[in-house]
Amino acid sequence: MTKLRRLLAIAALLLPGTALAQKVPVLLVPDRVFTATDRVVHEGWKVLVADGRIVAVGPDVTAPAGAETRVLPGTTLLPGLIDLHVHLFLHPYNETSWNDQVMKEPLALRTARAVAHARATLMAGFTTVRDLGTEGAGDADAGLKMAIQQGIVPGPRLLIASRALVATGAYGPKGYAFDVPQGAEEVSGEGIVAAVRRQIAHGADWVKFYADYRWGPGEPSRATFSLDELKAGVAAAHDAGRKVAVHASTPEGMRRAVLAGADTIEHGNDATDAVFALMKANKVAFCPTLAATDAITRYGGWNGAAPEPEAMRAKRASYAAALQAGVTMCVGGDTGVFAHGANAREIELMAGWGMARNDALWTATAGNAAILGMSDRIGSIAPGRIADLVAVAGDPLKDLSALENVRLVMQSGNIVTNP
Ligand SMILES: [Zn+2]
After folding, report:
1. Where along the chain do its domains lie?
2. What is the mean pLDDT of residues 294-303?
3. CATH number of the domain located at residue range(s) 81-372 in this protein
4. Which of 55, 91, 135, 349 has the smallest number of Cβ neighbours within 10 A?
5. Ligand 1 center to 61 CA (angstroms)
6. Mean pLDDT (whole number) for 57-81
7. Rounded to the nearest whole angstrom, what is the distance from the C-alpha of residue 290 to the centroid of ligand 1?
8. Helices (H) and strands (E) in the chain — how many of each?
């Protein structure tokens, strides 16, 4: 390492998250590589990166003249991880309730938190996330995305959903004698198409609808938007080249989402075999958000011991039915309900609750990239892909908690952390 490069490296450590621009090719030499494409680890493989892209991967890759070699003993190198359900503008509900975050936290505070959350996400090896709504923080996600893209603050590649869309009166905060700001944009009837287009104009990469919700405290969730409303909204999004995520917990909300043409369905707490069969037939992916249910149940006082509360039992049953049905799975923890940077919890839970570990890792990388329609750029280690990579201590195919021990994160070929 030259003196200048050493100084730059020290500067990068002093300014956590500052990308150390890689001017020369880098040969990464971990103990093993999980490319995602074949779902196995390859002992002794190496990865060559140049100009922000993966150039070569395999056992016999050598460093060209002038390249830097980085030996990463004891690690497994993976594609940058992807979380398809985060809320960077929320922080854990056991710190502040959702209601108080939406009602009492000024936008600047929420944005400052989101900046910190974006950094924590990237440092945890999650190089791409889909943010499914600012929950009352307006269009601030679009500005955060620009700040990351312009290198002003560190963060993952963002796919954003702007304010998200709820049926008029269905969402929250609720229970006030006058209209209060809501956690998402309220629409009904013909207004839904205009709202979709407005959100896209404000930067939405994905359009998110809430297909069901609780109308009052203590009530069960009920379908909100009519099928026609959802169909019109989804069609407007698809016409604009945007995919659609739908929050739905009830079988009827999920059924309407599928029939309307949703690309992913979030939560599915009370799903049935029939609705998963419908999802499978229509190729709709399922984000079970297991980690959010786990966190919220613990915030309610559960300590993880048997017997499990009803919400957890229902979630396990729904997830098992989805696996059984062969629905395309998506890794998205609803991160923000619990701490940003702990995104890997969802992968660990999905494996702990019945998915093979290598399938869970594939889903969090290549699978999620396919859902985004970005398989040609991210989600696997192959020549030509963007060099988004993470090295973790240990072998996650033997123990997924290895994902919590990040040793190096590379984003677009730049090393952003190397603790
Ligand atoms: Zn969510």
Report:
1. 3-80+379-417, 81-372
2. 96
3. 3.20.20.140
4. 55
5. 42
6. 97
7. 12
8. 13, 19
